Request: fold
Amino acid sequence: MAIGGGNDTIDKNSGIGGGAFAKGSVSHAEAGDGGRQGLGKHGNVSDSEEDDEHSGVPSAPKTLRDRPAKSDRAIKTSRDKRNIKKEDKGAEKEKELDEIDKRVLKSSKKYQRGLKMGKDKEAAINVRSKKEESKVAHDRRRREEAIMDAARNEMLLAESAGYIETEGLERTFNISQKQLAENLDVSSANKIIDLKLNDFGPYTLDYTPNGRHMLIGGRKGHLATMDWRSGKLACEIHVRELVRDVSWLHNESLFAVAQKKHAYIYDHTGAEVHCLSKHMEPTKLGFLPYHFLLASTGMTGALVYQDVTEGKVAGEHHPGYGQCSVLKVNPYNAVVHLGHGNGTVTLWSPKQTQPLARILCHKGPVQAMAIDRSGTYMATSGLDGRLKIWDIRNFKPLHEYATTRPAQSIDISQRGLLAAGHGPNVTVWKDALMTQVYQPYMRHLVPSATVSDLHFVPYDDVLGFGHSKGISSIVIPGAGEPNFDAYVANPYQTKKQRQEHEVKMLLDKLAPETIQLDPNFIGRLDPRTQAQRLREQVEDKHTEYAENKADGRYLDNEVKNKTKGRNSTAKRYARKRQTNITDLKKLRELENMERELQQQEAKRRKIPEEEKGALGKFFKEKRLLER
Reply:
């Protein structure tokens, strides 16, 4: 009873609690229809919850347990803030990426070769075979990806090119090398070199493709190779013979020398490796790095190509213009340019017997020549004292400059600076290829000497030149490419890297037949069908015949005089007309000849089938006996 009374008092004193508990117990106890009816009586709670669930609005918590804690609410708000920040950052990144893509697309134009991006899709449509069309599309995708990758990598370039800027009445060509050295850092100032070699001059020089090593050759037989930046001498020899020109081969391990009678190849220690007897009395050398061909011209005027990997002569041409001492290799398409004594420049390929082009450049002999690395512009200097700029794409002159003396040597830097050595002076022009400039960029004077050869150092702002008193180098700001590609030319390569690069170059060696004026022509598909090509060939022949007939080449052509009484006026006129015109008399003669042949054929006895074969001779004897 005490326990029961206690329960009664609790129920009485806490009626609200008991009632609530009772109702709760009843509602939870009724698992059937009673529970559903109880929920339906109080304000349609179930219907509102269903509506909230369908509308996406979160429902109010039923009890204190369902209500989120303060920490949970703080975490939720902080998450929302972080999400908002992430969205803002994402939008900013998208804007930056859009700007970067615009810059990449703008800078990708200079990396395009051949057809522009999107234009070659039309060429792929014209291909009828699905297999060839897929190949064209695959090549197009690879080319576009390479262009975009090259444009994106520009942002990773650490160095930038710069030129000398002056103010007011100052001029850049009045700044001397001494003034530059006082304002340069120590490493750049040490690049101004002056080697006095009075005994064996004048000197010619050449630099390796990475600009690390220098090769010098004196006219009286002095040869030396060195790492010109560190001043370390690699080898030094004296051949005791006339030396006209020197040239590096694919790297600093081998170099070629044009001596008195033949061309010779030496290794990095100065030991003679080969004597190239096919190169007779050479005056100028040139090396084609992607084809491993050594080209030379000389006193005989012949142009000789020799494969330095196999030792075979890849081609030999005789232009017929006499002695030649000017030779340059186009770095874009590997076509060799020769400058002749009558002022013409001829373009040659090793596997074509005739020159690819002839250009009349000067009124006097051509003295020197240079070609920029894009293969677009060519600079020539002649004995007439003019220095001309040519557009090789259409073989037309752009503009010309005058020098105090005929320039003996000219060169074009990687950034488009034009340098010329005339007498004791070295003159450098900026932006002189595309536009006409009226004052030089820099000048330098070599007292009481004559400049014989000059070259820009690759990937450096240095110009080296040889003269009658030795070798010198000066600093030309903005001349070299500030960023190098280690896969093409690495100035800091190790011995292992040099060996690997040499093996890759040998594996990627190109055949001499690939040398053409347009290197993109090889491998290009012709979308025309065979019938279209034949039709166009016939049309071309008809137009050519009409043009020749209008010019009178078939009637008025010169006839060579013939001896033995065959040079009468009537016969000469007949020979003129019989080349392409058939008159009525000639047609009658042809008809009579055909008629006679037919009659002779009809008179012949027809041999029966039984008389043919191995027993035919017995029938022949029988016919003779019958007669």
User: Anything to note?
Assistant: Residues 248 and 255 are 4 Å apart (CA to CA).
